[in-house]
Amino acid sequence: MKFLHFKNPIVKVLLYLLLIAGAVVMIFPLYTGVLTSFLGPETISSYPPKLFPVEFRWQNYIDASRQAPLLRFILNSFIQSGGVMIMQLITASLAAFAFAFLPFKGKNIAFLVFLSTMMIPWESTIIPNYLFIQKIGWTDTYQGLISPFMATAFGTFLLRQFFMSIPKDLYDAAKMDGCSNVRFLTSILLPLARPALGTLAVYSFLQTYNQYLWPLLITNSTNMRTVQIGITMLQVFEREQWQIVMAGVVTIMIPTLFLFFAANRQLIRGLTAGAIKG
Questions:
Q1: What is the model's pLDDT at position 270?
Q2: How many domains does the chain have?
Q3: How far is CA 257 from the centre of its chain?
Q4: Same domain for 89 and 126?
Q5: Do residues 99 and 218 both lie within one domain?
Q6: Domain-ending residue, one of 34, 62, 90
Q7: Quick one: pLDDT at residue 1?
Q8: CA-CA distance, 42 to 28, in Å (whole number)?
Q9: Nearby residues of 241 by Cβ (< 8 Å), 6 or more positions away
Q10: 95 CB contacts (<8 Å, ≥6 apart)?
């Protein structure tokens, strides 16, 4: 058993080799995508394939932006993702506060029912959602893209677990001093929950940014397409010119990479905070 202890140098080396191998497997597709985006049409079809940069053809990015309005697609995705993120932060904060601090009959049962919605596949509700959005005339609009995702069971669970880690005495003391529930939530609780809020914000933004099926169903015009739908226009127009397609993929991937690297530490802190008590 001592041989398997983490402090054993051999175990450390094997562990780091395993982590390095996993990192290479995860990064290699991203690396090849960026590399392909800079290759010319003759180089990309050469054999054996190039594993290191041999040219930097920036014209691919210019051609990609001409074939499809990528900046418009990115703007649409940012509007949709930002709207979903803000609404989920609001609704999840209110629901989590109620489940964590407000006493009412059947609270635990209601919370379990709320969590059970996470097991319902989104594909099973997409047609009813589409029929409702179509009936109220919200197809091909930003509100149609945003409204079905304004509430989140995962976000409520995440914030509720964090709120449960905050001493109940803090809430009781605030109530004795005449603090209302709204003021306690906005002035005391939410500032303490910034790691969890940051985690939910990043998670909801990235999840919405990568949506494909719902934007494909709800949008009809090119001006309302999001990045995951609009990028297919490059493949249709350019067909086998994969350097153009990969240039477009890299372009729409850059904003999410910046967001992830900027909020990576906050994301980890939020996911681990409140994980013990619940």
A1: 59
A2: 2
A3: 11
A4: yes
A5: yes
A6: 62
A7: 46
A8: 22
A9: 41
A10: 114, 151, 156, 160
23-45: average pLDDT? 83
150 and 35 in a common domain: no
Query: Would you state the structure tokens that stand for residue 42, as one six-digit string?
Result: 């003759």
From the list 51, 146, 133, the residue with the least C-alpha distance to 90 is: 146
C-beta separation of 98 from 171 below 8 A:
no
Asked whether residue 104 falls in the same domain as residue 160, the answer is yes
For residue 250, give the nearest of 222, 271, 278, 231 by alpha carbon. 231
- Burial (CB count <10 Å: 0-12, 13-18, 19+), residue 235: middle
User: Comparing C-alpha atoms, which of 83, 36, 16, 80 is closest to residue 249?
Assistant: 36
- Which of helix, strand or coil describes residue 172? helix
The answer on pLDDT for 170 being more than 70 is: yes
* pTM: predicted TM-score of the whole model, two decimal places: 0.81
Same domain flag for 256 and 124:
yes
Q: How many Cα atoms sit within 13 Å of 266 on the Cβ side?
A: 16
From CA 217, how far away is CA 215, in angstroms rounded?
Answer: 5
Question: Is pLDDT of 238 > 50?
Answer: no
Look up the domain containing 50 and give its range. Answer: 2-62
Contacts of residue 240, defined as CB under 8 A and 6 or more positions apart, other chains included, come to none
Place of tokens 């609270």: 107
